[in-house]
């Protein structure tokens, strides 16, 4: 007889416990499935809460990767961590492009205001995910 797992609350410790056992992109898990594994339920509110927890864990320094093609997982190596960081930078650049358009400020000017080095055109176009 197999024992069913008891539902848990979505907490940083619970999320970390599951993700530490999922190293590498091949072991990734979608937000929906991760919520279900922990809480035995699926709803949009829990998925939002999970994303907030993931953000907090990342700010605490945990190498939690995520990508639509792989799901959430711990980085297995520096290449995976770099891919995840590049994906996040690409999302941030997309947001900055929207800010520039809304404020009618050129991206190079905004980069300068933020003290950032402007990316090469090729690098910028690789982050349209």
Q: Largest sheet at a glance? A: 2 strands, antiparallel
- Biggest sheet: strand arrangement: 1-2
Helix and strand sequence: HHHEEHHH
Q: Please, what is the average pLDDT? A: 84
The class by helix and strand makeup works out as mainly alpha
Show unreliable segments: 122-129
Question: N-to-C terminal Cα separation, in Å?
Answer: 44 Å
Helix content: 55-70%
Descriptive account of the structure:
This protein has helices at residues 12-20, 31-39, 44-59, 78-103, 107-114, 121-125; strands spanning 64-67, 71-74. It starts with 11 loop residues before the first helix and ends with a helix. A two-stranded antiparallel ribbon has the order 1-2. The radius of gyration is 18 Å and the shape is elongated. A hairpin with a 3-residue loop joins strand 1 and strand 2 (71-74). The protein is 57% helix and 6% strand. It has 129 residues and is mainly alpha-helical. Helix 2 (31-39) packs across helix 3. The protein has 6 helices and 2 strands, in the order H-H-H-E-E-H-H-H. Mean pLDDT is 84; it is low at 122-129.
In summary, what is this structure?
This protein is mainly alpha-helical.
Q: How would the blueprint of this fold be written?
A:
Layout: H1 12-20, H2 31-39, H3 44-59, E1 64-67, E2 71-74, H4 78-103, H5 107-114, H6 121-125
Antiparallel strand pairs: 1-2
Helix pairs in contact: 2-3
Name some characteristics of this structure.
single chain, 129 residues, mainly alpha, two-stranded antiparallel sheet, disordered C terminus
